[in-house]
Each structure stands twice: as structure tokens, then as C-alpha cells.
Amino acid sequence: MTTTATAASAIDEPDLAEAFRAIVARRRSVRAFEPTPVPEAAIRDVFELAQWSPSNCNTQPWAVRIASGATRDRIAAALLAHIDDGGHQQGDLPYLRKLYPSDFKERQVAHILCQQQALGIDRDDKASRMDLLRQQLSFFGAPHVAFLFMPAWGNEREASDVGMFAQSLLLGLAAFGLAGLPQTLLGLYAPVVRPLLEVGEDMKLLFGISFGYEAKGAPGVRLDQTREPWGTTVRIMA
Ligand SMILES: Cc1cc2nc3c(=O)[nH]c(=O)nc-3n(C[C@H](O)[C@H](O)[C@H](O)COP(=O)(O)O)c2cc1C
Q1: Is 28 in the pocket of ligand 1 (CB under 6 A)?
Q2: Residue 19 falls within a domain, yes or no?
Q3: Closest residue (by CA) to atom 13 of ligand 1?
Q4: Each residue of 76-88: pLDDT tens digit?
């Protein structure tokens, strides 16, 4: 290793680095799916790879339930019935979005505006916002949804391990020609989801990941968003 290492000289396998770059570029949250189910062997392959995610002391504190077929349909129906009956959100974990400080709030608002623009939703139009909620709770048509739980005794450390698993999974889906959407919203209906997956109170639901084949070209399927530039969220202190 030379002392004047550049990005290029640090790369021992350039093809692998380029493949990773392509996978990161390909992975985006997708909000429209084809109904075609993913073959079980492919699902197993990508979830087994995600199992190699790092975790504190290799504790692997994620418990994942994949809803497909009739189970997926039952959960979507129960979620829609819940909101139609005027049921409330009740997540296992608090969601602090109302407390976001200004820079986080700005990014959140930019995201919402981008989504509303892509879907042609007027923020004052309650009916179209309700329609979007119904689409979220129907997994944007995805034939599968993975629900990610963590042990109820755990805290932020276990939650971050589950996040590691989730990102491996999302990149894996992209590498396999599939797509996914992480959805905190699904975690806000934990009491509706938990019994249908036969998961007890000893597990907390963090979020769901709807996945399947992307409905390419559907309105709002991918958002054209930005990221903070180099040097803002990440800094090198040499
Ligand atoms: C843990 C987590 C929860 C999310 N929850 C939702 C959600 O409930 N609904 C939704 O439409 N998008 C959700 N997203 C997707 C984010 O909006 C998306 O990741 C962000 O806007 C960046 O866009 P990108 O994933 O396309 O790069 C979630 C993302 C993460 C990581």
C-alpha cells in the first residue's frame, strides 16, 4: 500500500467496485409493483444473503416474516378495513417526525412535495391523500411484504442492526432485478399486523418492506430526489 493512495489504487477488484456502484444507483424506493410473484428460490437467495449483515456481537436480532399469497392479501384487507373503520395508528415505537429540527424538516418537506408532484397530488386534496394511504397499505401492489421485527427488550442498538439487515436486503433486491420499498407506515399498524403473522408481544415491529418486480414507467414509481453533498453529513477529520 502506498502512502499516496487514491480511490483507484485502493480498489483491488475494479469490476466488483463498478458492480457495487451500479447496484447503489439502481436501488431506489419503488412505489408501483407488478403483481407477478417472485419465485421462492429467488426470495430465499436474497434473504439468505441479507442474513450476512453485520450486527452487534453477531446477535442477528432481526425476526423477519415474509407475507405472500393469501397472507399478504389478508394483511392488506385488514389494514384497509382498519382505516375504513376509523382505526388509529399505534406503532410499537414512537415516530418523532413532528419534532424534526429545521434541516430534517426541510428534507422531509422536500420529499413530500417531490412525491405529491410525481403523483399529481394536491396537498389540500384530502381524497387523493387518502388514496395514497390506501396504496401504501396495499403495498403499492407488491406481491410480497417482509415485516421486520426486533426483540421487545431491545433498544436503538438492536434497531440499527435491523437497519443493517434492511439495507443489505434492499441492495440485494436491486442486484437480483427486484425492487423494494421500506415502509415505516406499516409499523404504525403493529396491532393489526402482529396476530396475522402469529408474532407475539415479545417482538416489536419496526417497519415493512414491500417487494417484487418494479412496474416500470408507472406514475411516481421512482422519485427524482437529491442527497446532501459531500462534506455536509460526512466529514473527514484528519
Ligand atoms: C426505515 C424507512 C422507512 C420508510 N418508510 C416509508 C414509508 O412508510 N412510506 C414510503 O413511501 N416511503 C418510506 N421510506 C422511503 C423513503 O422515503 C426513501 O428511502 C427516501 O425518500 C429516499 O429515497 P430512495 O429510497 O428512493 O433513495 C422509508 C425509508 C426507510 C429507510
Answers
A1: yes
A2: no
A3: 183
A4: 999 999 999 999 9
Domain with 197 in it: what CATH number? 3.40.109.10
Place of cell 394511504: 133
Q: Check: CB of residue 165 under 8 Å from CB of residue 148.
A: yes
State the residue range of the domain holding 83: 37-93+137-212
Residues 123 and 217 sit within 8 Å (Cβ to Cβ)? no
Model confidence pLDDT, tens digit, residues 128-167: 889 999 999 999 999 999 999 999 999 999 999 999 999 9
Residue 8 lies in a domain: no
Q: Which residue has the cell 403493529?
A: 190
Please give the tally of structural domains in the chain: 1
Q: Which residue's alpha carbon is nearest to atom 20 within ligand 1?
A: 29
Ligand 1 near 167 CB (within 6 A): no
**H-assigned helices in the chain:** 14-26, 40-50, 69-84, 102-119, 126-137, 156-175, 184-187, 190-196
How far apart are the C-alpha atoms of 11 and 53, rounded to whole Å?
22
What is the position in ligand 1's atom list of the atom closest to the CA of 31? 11
Beta bridge partners of 212: 179
Nearest CA to ligand 1 atom 5: 183
Which residue type does 175 have? A
Other CB atoms within 10 Å distance of the CB of residue 42: 13
59 lies in a domain?
yes
Question: Is 150 within a domain?
Answer: yes
The answer to pTM > 0.70 is yes
